[in-house]
Amino acid sequence: MFRHAAIALVAVFLLAGATASAQDIQISLQADADAVVVGDSLNVEISVEGAGVRSPNVEMDDPPQFEIEGRSQGQQVSIVGGRTSMSRTLNLRYRAVKSGRAKFGPARVRYKGRVYQSNAVDVDVADSAAAAPSGPAPTEAAGKNAFLDVELTATEAYPGQEVGAAYFFYTSLNVRQAEAVSEPSFPGAIPHKLAGGGKLNFIGTRVGGESYLVSPLVRYVLYPVAPGEVTVDEFRMAALVDRPNKRRRGDVFDSFFATSAQRVDLASPRKIIKVKPLPAEGRPADFSGNVGVFTMSASLDKTSVDVGDAVTLSIVVEGKGNTETIAPPAVDVADGLKTFSQSSRDESVAAFDTMKSRRVFETIIVPEKSGVYDIGPFDMPVFDPDEEEYVRVTAPAVRFEAAPGSGPTMAAKKRRRQIGDRAVRQGHPHRQTRRRPAGRDAAPRRPRSVFVARHLRGAAGFRGAFMAGPHARAPRVRRHARAPRESRQRSAPPARRGAQAG
């Protein structure tokens, strides 16, 4: 019996191990840039994860726009809960040789008779630097082993238009350590920091025909406030780099001490963004200064309520632009509806190189009579900086129904019942609200003096005991006090006393 149980247990463990080893493999592909110039380098990383994966054979066709320069791989093993999981990373280094749109992937891995595929990534290759994202000018990098640069998504903008500013660290030396000395300021704009301040991540690139390693430092999104100029200030950094030493002829120790560490202080160039005024032509009369590329939607938290109950209207404005200063859209309601306080909250989140702006406006609406109500449609004028024209952002109307049979009186009673229930939950059952009958059948209300006298009578004994001291005994209070025995005998009739004496 025990032998059969042991065999069954071993079979279960073997089946579990086979199931774990046959788990689906996860394979992903990513590139460090989505646009390069002919002659630039590109790093592609392929990650393979899964239990039991030890030496996967990764297959991928190279696009004709790139040539392979080198490859490296790494491995990581983790054991969690007795299960072994392995992760292998294949790093491929390419160089762009022809313009066009290149497609990397999907990468394929064959494992135990199955084929697993990764995602695909598109990379644009331009003929010249003018067609690719901006980089440092060759004159700025000439003769420099290390320098900083800032790239702007636009050098001219409108008030409220989003402008990206990204700082980069270029070097042709080995960097041992680097730290920020001071971060930039942006007079004339509202900045939002997106990312940065982490570990340096270098990739290869070419500037002016020279090879460099470049790492992003920090990214910002700027919103100009008014027409004029926005100053993109310097980013200052200190780095410890290895510089080559001058070799002396015949010195055999120079091969061991070919480099030495040296501190270098770096600062990015200062740049200017020209802010143009908004055009007067075509400006709507109700324009309130909203600038950006937005969409708008409206919704209600309830579609059916009773008269006197509240419904919340939510209007969401999201897109590309500064939603912190955006003016709320107008809310017009029909007769029979009453609006209360309007509130808003910002739900913008920072992405890699942009800000996903989102703001929610909420309005409380209470129907005063029954019926079907339509609220909206909604619209607001916005200046689109991409199209350089004024547009109207719209959202369709929303509808809800208010049913009769309720009203402010019933709502007030409901609130009183809720207060009473809350008092009971908190341990105060005597505080719950009680309904009293109205009209002639109502019970007469006791005068307040009865309750006051009852409380004072109970407190009289306590007051006497407290004033007499801690060991004094409170006097006994009787409702119907009787006279002492002696006083009763003295007050007896004379005839009765004489009879007793005789």
Number of helices: 6
Strands, count: 31
Distance between the termini: 116 Å
Structural class: alpha+beta
What would you report as the Rg, rounded to the nearest angstrom? 42 Å
Low-confidence stretches: 1-22, 128-133, 428-434, 449-453, 458-468, 497-502
Count of domains = 3
Any idea what the shape is? Answer: globular
Q: Mind explaining what this structure looks like?
A:
There is one protein chain. This protein has 502 residues and is of the alpha+beta class. The chain has 3 domains: 109 residues, Immunoglobulins (Immunoglobulin-like); 142 residues; 112 residues, Particulate methane monooxygenase, b subunit. Chain: A, domain 1 (Jelly Rolls, Sandwich), CATH 2.60.120.570. The protein contains 6 helices and 31 strands. Strands 11, 13, 15, 16 and 17 form a 5-stranded antiparallel β-sheet that branches. Strands 22, 24, 25, 26 and 27 form a 5-stranded antiparallel β-sheet that branches. The chain is globular, with a radius of gyration of 42 Å. It starts with a helix and ends with a helix. The N terminus and C terminus are likely disordered.
Keywords summarizing the entry:
five-stranded antiparallel β-sheet; alpha+beta; 15% helix; Immunoglobulin-like; 6 helices; Jelly Rolls; 31 strands; globular; 502 residues; disordered N terminus; disordered C terminus
